[in-house]
Structures are given as C-alpha cells and as structure tokens.
Amino acid sequence: MLPAVPGNDAFRSCNSSADLGKQVSCNGPCLTYIIEDPDELGKKLYVRGCQSELSQVQTSPNYNNGNGGQHYCEYDENFRRPTSLGTSVQTKILVERCVNTTLPCNKRINFPGESDQDNNCNDSKNNNTVNNEALSCYECEDTNENCKKGKCSKKYCVKSVAKVQGTYSTKKFCSNVNPFGTNEVCSAYDLTVTLFNINNIGGHSNICFCKNKQYCNSSTRLTFGLSTILMFFAAKTFF
C-alpha cells in the first residue's frame, strides 16, 4: 500500500538545511525535491531522504554520469501546474541527487539564482538532445483520447493518464526534471479527487518520462519499466 498524502506542514518541516535529529543512512545517493507551491507562488515545499526510499530506484544512470558521480541536479523554472482550483500557473521545481560518506549532502534550500551557494544546478542542460537535435514532445490534454497535438521542447517528454470513475484524462507535456533519474520509466499510484471539498472519489494514475526518441510521449500504452514513486510527490508535482 502506498503512503497517504501528508499535509503541507510535512513538506515545510524539511526546509532546514541541517537537523541532526532527522539524519538517516542511505544505501546510495541522497535526494532533495524542492517544489514551488502552485497555490502560494514563492513558497517552497521540500522532500529530503534516500533515493532508494523516495523513488524506489536504487541506482540512477543519470546520477552516475554527472559531476564525477558526486552530484546531479536538474531544474525547471517554467513548469506549468494547476492550482487546487484548476488554474494553470508557472512554477519552479528542482531534483538533486548527491553523495557524501560523512555528512548529509542534501541540504539545498534555494532554487538557482536565489543564493551564491545554490547556483550549481545545470544538469538539465546536459544530455538533452536526440541525435544532436532538441527533443520535441507532444503538449496536449484530452479526455478518453490519446491526443497527439501541440509541441514543446525540454529534456524529457512526459505522459500522464488518470482514470476516475471510468473516465480517462490524458496529459502530455515536457519537463527539464525527472524525479526517477532514469531516462525511460513509468510510475503508477492510486489517487483521491476531492469535489467541492465534500466528496472524495478514488482513482488511478500512471505517469511516464522518456527521451529516447522524438515525440516519445505519443504511445497509446505506457510501456516503460513500471515502478512506484512516493505518491505525495507525484500528486503535488504533476497534477
């Protein structure tokens, strides 16, 4: 069973750069997610922990290829997401992996440009082409259809499909961050939709990231290796 979605206080309690009472040992890289709250722009939500626990991915090919295997950071400053009322807004999101054998390294508290020490987040600009051409992705939304229209270009193509009460909602877009650290990967999890703050309706959602070919988010089926990411990250970030 996946964990329940915690409230915003659970995210904000991670905004301290050092807390001895919250340190754990990781078998692999440490991980930091910083997410701008679409309902309160300028306010950051934080998730910190072990990559193997948060993403269910033990090793990360992208991480191993970046900065000598010590640090890998992706940042998207123009990531559009809906507010709780359904209005689309432009937000920021950052995913950072790091390793240190003696002290916790996942202490970042700022997005790039907000402080001198937190400017080293450039891996979204690396390995971001296909056959030396910018990656093109479909950018569209549809109901009960596999839409193939619109165009955007970033490091990854993304496709998400949510099913609620027999209705499928498909969203395709592009992103400069990938929470898994694996170029082609899918996640599946249960979700709850609240209507008018009264009724809760259960559903299911899949989300896939890819960059192996142009318009790779065109497929009818989600066919990449399936894994499970911690539900609150996907819910807060992509829907």
Automatic annotation (TrEMBL):
Protein name: Uncharacterized protein
